[in-house]
Specification:
The chain is built from four helices and no strands. The protein has 101 residues and is an all-alpha fold.
Length: 101
């Protein structure tokens, strides 16, 4: 699933693609961004996902390249990427006044 829904912004970078529960995605998340509480709870899960990506040579390189394109830091340190993604989500949600779950 896309962390930031394609309908909000079409980021097709690896940091924005994470495994998800189909039922949760279809019935709760849909095309919305997480609210502050859900976002705070998601950061450790995002970091774990990025750490799993780092376990693969190909995915580690793709994550590094995608992070370098999107964020001010070029390293793909999983906790740092997760915090950057959370900050981006919060900025988008606030700037566009989007529905959240």
């Amino acid at each position: 699933d896309h962390v930031v829904p394609v309908s909000v912004y079409p980021f097709h970078e690896l940091w924005n693609l994470v495994p998800s529960d189909a039922r949760f995605n279809m019935h709760r998340k849909r095309a919305r961004l997480p609210g502050p509480e859900a976002l705070a709870a998601a950061v450790p899960r995002l970091a774990a996902t990025y750490a799993a990506y780092a376990g693969s040579r190909e995915l580690r390189r793709a994550l590094h390249d995608d992070v370098a394109l999107r964020f001010a830091h070029a390293d793909a340190d999983p906790p740092r990427v997760a915090r950057s993604v959370a900050g981006l989500i919060e900025s988008i949600a606030t700037a566009r006044n989007l529905a959240r779950f």
